[in-house]
């Protein structure tokens, strides 16, 4: 089992514990705001399961029907997370509206807030694990799950402070008002998760910093060639796809051209271990005098 899968399984276990704690806090108080917090935890568990499934599919090797691998499965998981987040936010808004129509004071607020606060601390710790490890492992599913949890941690902190204020002031209407604010925050989080994932599904190029590194490596390691042009990149989960045309002197032997390509590929893989590289060798008359010039 890969490290990515182990972290995804950890997300499910942490999500179940947090869900149980937040549901208990809601049961103690009857707070609509704490109910909204608990409802978001249901989404956390569901999306963690979806992320695990996507990670396992993405880890499958390339086959006849999917010669480029299954790496984009993680982006589908992240899009699903965004959709589920938005659905949860709409359900919370519905409950908040009922709370506005019939506000009521909370029961056992101190106990409920303590339980909910402890659950939020667990979420905060796991959120850091997901984002840091997800970036290191280049897993969109883990990073998306981490950002979702981050929004949960922020909204939970606001809920705890707001519910405490409602208890102190006696303004029962603050409880559904906070639930509505949580829902708006969740909607924004879901939108960001979906847009980030859609860029991967649309074969978005690597970021400018990585592209500059790729250009520099080609320029430095292509000694013996004349130029490289039509450089294209895209990313799919942990995999980066790189392809370009390499122009060599017409008298260059196949063996010599192959050696140049091997040298470039080794250097690129040292920088991007999961890269899949395609180099099309062309004779001198195909030069465009543009793109990457060889040092």
Automatic annotation (TrEMBL):
It is a multi-pass membrane protein. Residues 208-284 form the Cation efflux protein cytoplasmic domain. SUPFAM superfamilies: Cation efflux protein cytoplasmic domain-like, Cation efflux protein transmembrane domain-like. It comes from Paracoccus lutimaris. This is Protein p34. InterPro entries: Cation_efflux (IPR002524), Cation_efflux_CTD (IPR027470), Cation_efflux_CTD_sf (IPR036837), Cation_efflux_TM (IPR058533), Cation_efflux_TMD_sf (IPR027469), CDF_Transporter (IPR050291). It is found in: Cell membrane. Keywords: Cell membrane, Membrane, Transmembrane, Transmembrane helix, Transport. Residues 11-202 form the Cation efflux protein transmembrane domain. The chain crosses the membrane at residues 7-29, 41-59, 75-93, 113-131, 152-171. It comes from the Bacteria. The lineage of its organism: Bacteria, Pseudomonadati, Pseudomonadota, Alphaproteobacteria, Rhodobacterales. GO terms for molecular function: cadmium ion transmembrane transporter activity; ferrous iron transmembrane transporter activity; zinc efflux antiporter activity. Signal peptide: none annotated. The keyword Transport applies. Belongs to the cation diffusion facilitator (CDF) transporter (TC 2.A.4) family. Pfam families: Cation_efflux (PF01545), ZT_dimer (PF16916). The keyword Transport applies. Its main location: membrane. Gene3D superfamilies: Cation efflux protein transmembrane domain, Cation efflux protein, cytoplasmic domain.
């Amino acid at each position: 089992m890969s490290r990515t899968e182990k972290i995804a399984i950890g997300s499910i276990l942490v999500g179940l514990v947090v869900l149980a704690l937040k549901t208990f806090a809601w049961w103690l108080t009857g707070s609509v705001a704490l109910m909204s917090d608990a409802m978001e935890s249901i989404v956390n568990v569901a999306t963690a399961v979806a992320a695990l499934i996507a990670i396992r599919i993405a880890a499958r090797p390339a086959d006849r029907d999917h010669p480029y691998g299954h790496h984009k499965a993680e982006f589908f998981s992240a899009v699903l997370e965004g959709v589920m987040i938005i659905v949860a936010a709409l359900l919370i808004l519905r409950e908040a509206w009922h709370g506005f129509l019939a506000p009521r004071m909370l029961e056992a607020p101190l106990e409920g807030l303590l339980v909910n606060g402890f659950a939020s601390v667990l979420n905060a710790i796991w959120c850091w694990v997901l984002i840091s490890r997800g970036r290191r492992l280049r897993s969109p599913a883990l990073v998306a799950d981490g950002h979702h949890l981050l929004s949960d941690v922020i909204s939970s902190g606001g809920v705890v402070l707001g519910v405490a204020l409602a208890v102190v002031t006696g303004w029962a209407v603050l409880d559904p008002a906070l639930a509505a604010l949580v829902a708006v925050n969740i909607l924004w989080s879901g939108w960001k998760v979906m847009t980030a994932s859609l860029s991967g599904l649309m074969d978005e190029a690597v970021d400018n910093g990585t592209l500059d590194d790729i250009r520099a490596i080609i320029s430095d390691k292509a000694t013996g060639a004349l130029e490289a042009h039509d450089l294209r990149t895209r990313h799919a989960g942990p995999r980066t796809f790189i392809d370009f045309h390499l122009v060599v002197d017409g008298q260059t032997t196949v063996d010599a051209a192959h050696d140049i390509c091997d040298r470039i590929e080794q250097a690129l893989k040292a920088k991007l271990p999961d890269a899949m590289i395609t180099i099309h060798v062309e004779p001198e008359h195909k030069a465009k005098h543009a793109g990457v010039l060889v040092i």
